[in-house]
Amino acid sequence: MDNLDFVDIDYADIPWYRKRWALVIFVLFFCPAIWFLAATGDFYAKREGKTYAFRSKTRIVIVAVLSMISGAMRLMAHR
After folding, report:
1. Confidence of residue 1 (pLDDT cuts 50, 70, 90)
2. CA atoms within 13 A on the CB side of 24
3. What phi, psi does 10 have (nearest 5°)?
4. Residue ranges per domain, the chain?
5. What is the Cβ-side half-sphere exposure of residue 28, based on CA atoms within 13 angstroms?
6. What percent of the residues of the chain are helix, what percent strand, and what percent coil, each to the nearest 5?
7. What is the pLDDT of residues 58-78, one digit of tens each?
8. Assessment of whether the complete model's pTM goes beyond 0.85
9. Are 66 and 25 in contact (CB under 8 A)?
10. Structure letter (DSSP) for residue 78
11. Model confidence over 33-44: pLDDT tens digits?
12. Neighbouring-strand partners of residue 51
């Protein structure tokens, strides 16, 4: 099952903070930004030269999992 929906938008026109790689940066350095971005719009990915938007359920799962990973990393860092 594919978790992405094709969108007719050029990937270069997507704001940098809505791209998949930005999610990783936010998880590592500023986790609250992910929650705000997930609540206010879509995340996008590029596959085989086409632009896709994450489905809303996928977006929720991604935010939840990344938040848990971030929390676990922070707990391990404080031990």
Report:
1. very low
2. 3
3. -70, 135
4. 4-77
5. 5
6. 60, 15, 25
7. 778 877 887 788 788 888 987
8. no
9. no
10. T
11. 877 888 888 889
12. 46
Task: Say if residues 3 and 58 touch (Cβ distance below 8 Å).
Answer: yes
DSSP label at residue 41: S
Tokens of 4: 């992405």
Say which amino acid occupies 31: C
Cβ atoms 31, 67 nearer than 8 A: yes
What is the 3-state secondary structure of 7-34? CCCCHHHCCHHHEHHHHHHHHHHCCHHH
Query: What is the C-alpha separation between 2 and 6, in angstroms, rounded?
Result: 10
Q: Is the dihedral of CA 3, 70, 46, 35 positive or negative?
A: positive
For residue 42, give the nearest of 59, 25, 27, 57 by alpha carbon: 59
